[in-house]
Design a protein that fits this description.
Chain lengths: ~525, ~140
Amino acid sequence: MAANPADLSAALVLTPVPAADWLVVLPPAWCILAGAVLLMLRKSVRLQALIAIPALAGLVVIDALLLAHVAANGPVTMVMGRWLPPFGIAFTADLTGVLFALAGAVVALAGGVHALADIDASGRRYGFYPFLLLLMAGVSGAFLTGDIFNLYVWFEVLLIASFGLITLGSEPRQIDGAIKYAFLNLIATTLFLVTTGYLYGIFGTLNMADIAAKAAAGRAELPLMTLATLYFVAFGMKAAAFPVNFWLPASYHTPRVVVSALFAGLLTKVGIYALLRTLVMLFPVEREELSFLIVLVGVATMLLGALGALGQSDIRRLIGYVVISGIGVMLAGLSLGSPGGIGGAIFYALHSMVVMTALYMAAGLAGRLAGSFDLNSLGGLYGRSALFSALSLVLFFAAAGLPPFSGFWPKVMVAKAAIDIGAWWLAAAVLATGFLTTIALGRVFALAYWRPAPMALPVQTMPAGALLPLVLLTALTVGFGLFPERLMALVQHAAQGLADPRAYIGSVFPEGK
Amino acid sequence: MNTLIFRTVAPFLTALMALFSIFVLLRGHNEPGGGFIGGLIAVSALAIFGIANGIAAVRRALWFHPMAISAFGLFIACLAGLLSAAFGVPFMTGLWVYPVVLGVEIPLSSVMLFDTGVYLVVVGAITSIALALEAGDDV
């Protein structure tokens, strides 16, 4: 090109990019590449899993490397097309985002392996693995992007992939569940888009670091309360918070069990992540104003979720309510706003990703062994497989928040943060939720596992491929239950990074504009 | 829609529109046009061919499954972004080469590769929707 007299350094990144920074864009790019290859080879059913599972393992490795990089060096940013932020779209990985992305990748890998036994050849030909990889592209992109409109785009990517997954099999009741799911999620996404348009009108920027800095500077005259409230409604719907949670139990029991497992692990947590990102990092003062509303929603979500779980007889619907109840605990942490509360919410989200996925897998295996998902006809599972029963019991305790499993520590963090500000009733609600969940899941164990089989069981063997991811996820929850110190330090660090985003802003605008 | 005139003209119209869609794709870097609109023109061409000669003829003419075409587009669009890793510049930075072929300088860029990917994604995705809709019409 001809010599250009213009000063390019005002518009472009001219310094060479360190190779390690590529880790920020690699998770979504890697998933898109693998998903595209799988889609091209859609007819080669045998190749699908052979490519998809190494690709998902690669995603776990990439996210783990990114976590090590971010933990050592602080937030990392890369801008697309070398345009300087806020004009170039930034990908910014901070501890919160990377922790969520890594947990998501682990869950997806477990789901990919579990699907070997759960998804038949027709499901694979229909495109289970391409959809899974594209879902992971959307999920990783949402966790790592530093641009709020880009976040919307990744939401759309994961939503479209999830529509494909939820209708896998095309049974009438799946279409019924998919329509409820799709309709309510589209309303939430539209609200998100409208709010983002409003935000752009106010700030003239979509870069989250830029928004955080401008919001802090011009808080007095900007209508930020409106934005924060609209985002709370939009993402609350995504996260299945009461009273906009009815789409979840209406749809999560209809798809293949491994799809329910992936949805329970990934989708609602993206909503929680977006709530943390917008309400804690962008609009902290407004979150403080809203905290009473958030805590009411949180308490209602956790208690009604647990009560809903008590009232169900289909174990897949029952676990759907347990997922909702966990969202309530995360909202309670969010409403507190202290490092303990936010850290507890992040920890609980990570725990919930692993445990809810594993719970759905266990429910699927229980249904396969006993030939039913109905508590009235289930029974005799303990006699069929003691190992499977032990794994299920660990998962039930972990979901209920009993020690020494991973659900215990985030509840301790949230309850302690609540007591610290004198909100003993919030701590009591968290404990009561744990108690109700214990009863609901204990009922499942008593009826489906201990009770002698009420009818002759079909002869079904336990597929090893389906049991392996369950063992690994259970090992994770036991591991983080027994040795929570490292993760606890990380989430507290992550919570501080959200509450005080100077390092995040500094990574996007190195000169401190 | 099987009048003799339409069936006779359709293949020529399709060929012309396909050519025009590539023209619009290549023109798109600095002037109105580009991968998305070019792809839509190509899909219209295939739709006309399909209405005249049936969807089996379109599937035969495409050779690849439309979904595979859009997947290939996604693949090369993503690859176009990753190319910049080799040059130490951020993801999706435009990279240019100017080879001279027969005395004519031809500017080629990663941007064009990306746009071609978009073109193929649009062609594949919308064609598979159009074919599915037309197939549903037959039964």
